[in-house]
Amino acid sequence: MSSATTNIESVLHEERVFPPPAEFSERAHVGSMEELEALRREARESPEAFWGRMAEGELHWFRKWDAVLKWEPPHAEWFVGGRINISYNCLDRHLQTWRRNKAAIIWEGEPGEQRTLTYGQLHREVARFANVLKRAGVERGDRVALYMPLIPELAIAMLACARVGAPHSVIFGGFAAQAIIDRVNDAGCKLVVTADGGFRRGSEVRLKDTVDEALKQTPSVKGCIVVQRTGSRVSMEAGRDYWWHEVIQTVADECPAEELDSEHPLYILYTSGTTGKPKGILHTTAGYLLQAHLTTKWVFDLREEDVYWCTADIGWVTGHSYVVYGPLSNGATVLMYEGAPNYPEPDRFWDIIQRHRVNVFYTAPTAIRAFIKWGEHWPLRHDLSSLRLLGTVGEPINPEAWMWYREIIGKAKCPIVDTWWQTETGAILISPLPGATPTKPGSATRPLPGVEAAVMSKTGQEAGPNEGGYLVIKRPWPSMLRTIWGDDERYRKQYWSEIDGVYFAGDGARQDEDGYFWIMGRVDDVINVSGHRLGTMEVESALVSHEAVAEAAVVGRPDELKGQGIVAFVTLEGERRATDELKEELRRHVAREIGALARPDEIRFADALPKTRSGKIMRRLLREIASSGGAVRGDTTTLEDFSVLERLRVQEEE
Ligand code: WTA
Description:
Bound molecules: 5'-O-[(S)-ethoxy(hydroxy)phosphoryl]adenosine
CATH topology of the domain at 111-258: Rossmann fold
Largest sheet: 7 strands, mixed
């Protein structure tokens, strides 16, 4: 990288501060800044004693560890010598308490049917499916692929895998056959669990057909278990395919949890890098559970009587840590919803919150921007008064979207937790604690106790206040990834070699004068204009703060004079017309909000932006369109809607 690209310029200014409401703090697990600082201090002064104390107090162990941490950079082992089982921690330990008959999962299908599983019932289903796994020849250490809709059986299958010590690899149900082939072969999975289909936006997503296609090219797979979800016709291959509801009848409903080593692999989850094949992020047992458990308790401030809803699909890490493992380990009541937020109407989420009296709601900025675009009359027609806490994750959230979330959904009374973390980190690392931390719209605030985050230059110098740089983590943490499955070299290179001795998150960030972190997004989403690096997100925030703009994506394109020029793809609010006057106005608006440096060279109106299935804007594609005149050569397999790309290209040719 040239010296011109080593500084990241941060230009977002945000002055609003919201202290935690007193009523909230009074009942919170961590109810004041003093308490939070005391925890931070304890963790900083003796990290191992801190994590040891947490592990002892919060989890059930078959055998206590001999050492809290063995750190041979870049490889960490946590709670060395301990024996533990996550499924036991999420289920069995609650059965010895009144939670036995508490709702663990309240599930709603997209067509509207509902199921509730108590902890006792969930335990029984998990034990049965664990026995099915064993009968199918799955042994400790064998990998199992789960390609399923968002139904309780997905959580059951994950917990059953954890119970017998078979690492699972959940493959998002929106992926196509090739993605299954790549992932199943990379991990060498022995078994695939799927369903006939699932429902999304009113139509059936036919999963088994896709699996059939994939299994032609996956030699390691010996069997396939199929949940009957939609009831549509599927083909079942004799000797390979079995119906879940049939095999479950043939086994006992008791299955003791295996006493696993703390470092036993729990799951592999594939995530895309900027180039090349997806990386299989490996998480192990004890450290992962500890941090997923603790962050769920602290950040979402769970109370026994809460209905907790994280809208993420379980195919992503957020669903692993904050739909399944974190909340169940805490004995929470978890709401699960199978389908789309706009089915049958754009108020499905608000309808669910009203009917189930949801208290804690955790979603993504991309969803919030969609709600804004659909209009506030949808949430306003529902009673959302049960909500007491709101969360967001996945991307930087623009201050304007944050304010909308606070006012329209939270009625200015719910704290918002903007949680920064990654598939690789396993659990939330930077976030407010809602009863303690004053929040600023657009900032994930400060690292949680035990997390030593910093902003550095490429050469490892810590940045000063408001100086942009790279987000790094300076010490190993319990839920960190252990390696990239089958590619330890890539693990070293990608995360531990960019800056000497620290974990390189791949995000640009700055810390303000209060030490608050402002995440600017991936460093590959950074544009360099005249030697100044700008977070694309900040330009987008400025655009979105204009009343005509619904959504914006900003990319760089080569520019002879400035290094890179800025191209903004913009979708407009409902009735707004795309005119040249509006283009000019938006360019001026950005210049006004951020500075002339950030004024887009070109604005393109689009009716939709290309997104991944998890809702992230695929800036890489836009970058190619912006710089190459329409041709897109890179990988488009994770694109949700191909026609968007077509329409953008056509516009190019006009
Ligand atoms: C981004 C999702 C700003 C970031 C849990 C990170 C965020 C990537 C935030 C990881 C946030 C996630 N503010 N950016 N609160 N949360 N990100 O692996 O760029 O799907 O590196 O994990 O999302 O995405 P992943």
